Amino acid sequence: MRSGIVSYNLAVGTENTGDSGYHETLTIFWLTILYHFLKLQEGKSLLALCNELLDSKLAINSLPFFFYDRGRILSTNARARFQEPNKNEVSRPIITRILTNEIDIT
């Protein structure tokens, strides 16, 4: 995944630096969110999955801040190397509670 994103960034003129381009922690974070979402939705069509994901709170761009302190996720260290969440763990039970509105992430 990393090499594909880095290559794409270079192809479209985006530099991969300490404060721009590829972000290891966010990439792994979003892939983990997607993995748990898909495991909770097994058996649905691709169209239904896409619509449900985009209509859910998992599509909110501030979602990482529910799991990470702002300083941690925006650090150059988190951009270069994966950092574990320091506020809430990314787990299927937490994702389920977000999807069922038991947890307010806004």
Main beta sheet:
none
Write down the overall geometry.
globular
Percent helix among the residues?
40-55%
- Portion in beta strands: under 5%
Instruction: Give me the secondary-structure category.
Output: mainly alpha
N-to-C order of helices and strands: HHHHHHH
Radius of gyration: 15 Å
| Total discrete domains | 1
Distance between the termini: 29 Å
Low-confidence stretches: none
SS field, number of helical segments: 7
- Counted beta strands: 0
| Overall pLDDT level | 94
Offer a few descriptive terms.
about 110 residues, mainly alpha
Would you kindly provide a brief summary of this structure?
The chain is an all-alpha fold and about 110 residues long. Helix content is about 55%, strand content about 0%. The chain has one domain.
What would you say this structure looks like, in words?
This protein is about 55% helix and about 0% strand. By secondary structure, the chain is mainly alpha-helical. The chain has one domain (about 25-100). The chain is globular, with a radius of gyration of 15 Å.
